[in-house]
């Protein structure tokens, strides 16, 4: 796997700021929220949307805070502590213990796979292994898939994993991970397949080919 984009950190932060509402909308759709892009844009601007439930509104607002935290702290070291901080923003007021590793059993809808309860040392070792992957884009995709299937937290695992993967991309100038509407159905199908089998090559290839955005310079 080769890098799709090579930008400066400043260029990539510019890209992230321009696409922050896109990213929040994409994260919300992956989570299954029945929200439109204009509604996401309105909530980001602080305007209430009467059609949505309180829980849906809170999810969008939490995503806004998580993305703002990422952009403000993109220089910080990527480690378990940083990942927990992202989950703290993403899952605030909606999980048993936001920002803390899960301590009990959870199920993943649509699959019989039951992820084991996370062990902190093993999680930190796996993060260290992922960070040794030479290709930054592959490193980000690997972390995203690991975080999703491991279900490190009580809630917000997909959202947390995508935002953390983008931290890896943005700080290294490699673009952004963004699942667009026209790729959402296939992404969800491949993710469910990955949950069940643990085999990741097909979904990695799909993400690399369809879910990376950047700035094309002449």
In short:
By secondary structure, the protein is an all-alpha fold. The protein has one domain: Fic-like fold (Orthogonal Bundle), CATH 1.10.3290.10.
The tally of helices reads 10
Name of the CATH superfamily: Fido-like domain
CATH topology: the name is Fic-like fold
Low-confidence stretches: none
**SS strand fraction:** under 5%
Helix coverage percent = 55-70%
User: Kindly state the mean pLDDT as a whole number?
Assistant: 95
Q: Measured on Cα atoms, how large is the radius of gyration?
A: 16 Å
Q: Termini separation (Å)?
A: 23 Å
Which strands sit side by side, in order, in the main sheet? 1-2
**What is the tally of beta strands?**
2
Structural domain count: 1
| CATH hierarchy: architecture | Orthogonal Bundle
**Largest sheet entry:** 2 strands, antiparallel
Helix/strand structural class: mainly alpha
Helix-strand string: HHHHHHHHEHHE
Which class in CATH terms? Mainly Alpha
Q: What is the 3D shape? A: globular
How would you describe this protein?
The structure is a single chain. The chain has 218 residues and is mainly alpha-helical. It has a single domain, classed as Fic-like fold (Orthogonal Bundle). It is built from 10 helices and 2 strands, in the order H-H-H-H-H-H-H-H-E-H-H-E. Helix 2 crosses helix 3, helix 2 crosses helix 4 and helix 9 packs antiparallel against helix 10. The longest helix has 19 residues. It is globular and about 40 Å long. The relative contact order is 0.18. The mean pLDDT is 95.
